[in-house]
Amino acid sequence: MSTKKIAIDGPAGAGKSTIAKRLAAKLGYIYVDTGAMYRAVALSCIRAGISTDDEAGVTAQLKNISIDIAYEGGMQQIFLCGENVSESIRTPEVSMGASNVSRFLGVREMLVNYQRKIAEKHNVIMDGRDIATKVLPDADAAVFLTADVKERAKRRYDELILKGDNVNFDDVLEDMKRRDKNDSTRANSPLVKAENAVLADTTGKTLDESEALVFNIIREKVGEF
Length: 225
Fold this sequence. Notes:
CATH topology: Rossmann fold
CATH superfamily: P-loop containing nucleotide triphosphate hydrolases
Structural class: alpha/beta
Mean pLDDT: 92
Radius of gyration: 17 Å
Strand content: 15-25%
Strand order of the largest sheet: 2-6-1-7-8
Low-confidence stretches: none
Helix content: 40-55%
Largest sheet: 5 strands, parallel
Order of helices and strands: EHEHHEEEHHEHEHHEH
Shape: globular
CATH architecture: 3-Layer(aba) Sandwich
Number of strands: 8
Number of domains: 1
């Protein structure tokens, strides 16, 4: 029996991960946070003293990297060379590093192959930047989730403050704008709305309202919930 595949793409801070997690739990699907995989690559490079802008260095580091995911209580945990780095990858430095390494073809080829294998075995909700355009072009439902950049930056700022990070909103906003530019202008699998994706703009919406918007799109496309 073929698996069901739901793709959610969009820029940083749009709420993809939060909404995808909630919907995966509701539908009984596996949630796959592809961004966490790129963050793990970035973390490995940072720890090794390799600039995440150095394509040759990053590509060479791939041979030293093993990435695995596991699910505990329905939540994805990501392991880098056997170490659970699910918390360590959630820093501004790693976020920017992930945006940098995601430009490189060698990184994308390694991770896309892994992501497709997961989708062959499980019903998935997968979020990222190129899920509907590259990873799962045959997705049963594709959503392009976005919001105004200032609102996305405020969400990320609030998230970091809640974690206890000492951050400045203007810095978070500038990082968000840099990531948007990186993601949308890279040569390999840039962030674009797939032709078959439905646009979901969550500007001004609560989390519950945003979740309902995306769920209705999925239900209309998949037709079994």
